[in-house]
Design a protein that fits this description.
With 373 residues, the protein is α/β, with parallel strands linked by helices. The protein has 17 helices and 15 strands. The protein is globular and about 60 Å long.
């Protein structure tokens, strides 16, 4: 009899992680019966629907429709609405992804019903408890029966916290599975032409130099003064080369309060789908972000990245990647951008190899562990 695996997703990064796992499990229906629950934490078509379409994710079996709200509201509402679904399906395992409110709510609800929880992307730590995501990570890991880690530092974090090593499985980074599976489509997107980022070079056309910026964390976008500092630095650079800034819905509210934007050369766009965004990352000269997933994708693509945070839960992107942390409170943000641009043009870009097990085969490893339950 196949095992019932219930996946809980809700935020855009969850969808990038669940896609290859569901695809791998679908190859062996005699082993797995899958149920997909979408909490509705991200509900805008550009933040959710387009990812289902582009990544080939089946329509959710259950949609909880939680919508926006405070962390407490989202977590509590998801738990209330998810409980009956778990009672109806009684899955053999509940799989949660990443560090969103949907992750924590799914894990807590399952644990309260004595259902096994598997956490994909376990063990990551920023050691900054002011980040809501850090609380979500820590609590989810400590109530999970299976912890799938993307890097060796994540294993070390879990060991330090006293989690039984028998529960921990180092499987690699499942986001890379999606990137590899979509690589050809990523290369051939019209967005570069649409944004005027292509230029003729001989008989061919080549992407121009440009920067991609993406921000959504409260410390950067809820504080208008902090956001102004970042945008002013990007504006300065944008007078020399294009800056493309897909605007997260949370960020759009604060950006509207910046009067200086009237003269800014930054190309503010709507949120892009997965394929368009990865195309932009692939061809960018530099990426400025506060996203965890983007740190990983730029590391894999060997694209220089400035992470606008004082810390990261993904240190492997710094030790083995092209990522660098920059804290806007240090007052040297514009200098950091210029420095990173100069470094990105050096002939010998750091391409020392990908982090261990970032090889496009993580989903198969996860399926293998779950099939043995």
């Amino acid at each position: 009899m196949p095992k019932t695996v219930l996946h809980v997703v809700g935020a855009r990064p969850n969808l990038v992680k669940v896609a290859p796992i569901m695809r791998d499990m679908a190859r062996t229906p005699e082993r797995f019966r899958q149920v997909l629950v979408h909490t509705g934490q991200h509900y805008d078509d550009r933040m959710s629907r387009i990812f289902f379409d582009e990544l080939g994710i089946p329509n959710p079996d259950v949609h909880l429709g939680v919508g926006s709200g405070s962390h407490a509201y989202q977590t509590a509402t998801i738990m209330q609405r998810l409980e009956q679904t778990l009672l109806d399906y009684r899955p053999d395992v509940v799989v949660v992804y990443g560090d969103a409110n949907s992750t924590l709510a799914g894990a807590l609800t399952a644990a309260k019903l004595d259902l096994p929880v598997a956490h994909v992307e376990a063990g990551l730590r920023s050691f900054d408890r002011t980040m809501p995501e850090e609380t979500n990570r820590v609590v989810t890991d400590h109530i999970s029966e299976l912890l799938f880690t993307p890097s060796r530092d994540a294993d070390a974090n879990l060991a330090h916290e006293g989690i039984d090593s028998g529960k921990v499985h180092f499987v690699g980074n499942v986001m890379i599975d999606t990137l590899e599976q979509k690589r050809i489509q990523i290369e051939n997107r019209p967005i570069l032409d649409e944004l005027g980022l292509m230029s003729p070079e001989g008989n061919e056309r080549k992407a121009r130099e440009f920067i991609v910026a993406t921000l959504h964390r409260p410390a950067n976008v809820d504080d208008v003064d902090a956001l102004r500092l970042i945008v002013d630095a990007l504006t300065e650079v944008g007078r020399r080369l294009p800056v493309v800034f897909p605007v997260h819905p949370r960020t759009r509210k604060s950006i509207g309060a910046l009067r200086s934007l009237k003269a800014s050369p930054i190309m503010f766009t709507e949120p892009t789908g997965y394929l368009d965004f990865l195309c932009l990352l692939r061809h960018a000269t530099l990426v400025v972000t506060d996203s965890g997933g983007v740190q990983e994708e730029t590391t894999y693509l060997y694209v220089p990245c400035l992470t606008v945070r004082p810390n990261t839960e993904r240190p492997v992107t710094i030790t083995q990647g092209t990522n660098r942390l920059v804290d806007t409170r240090d007052g040297n943000f514009a200098d950091a951008i210029r420095e990173a641009l100069d470094s990105s043009r050096e002939p010998a870009r750091n391409q020392s190899g990908h982090p261990e097990l970032w090889d496009g085969k993580t989903a198969a490893r996860i399926s293998g562990v779950l099939s043995a339950l």
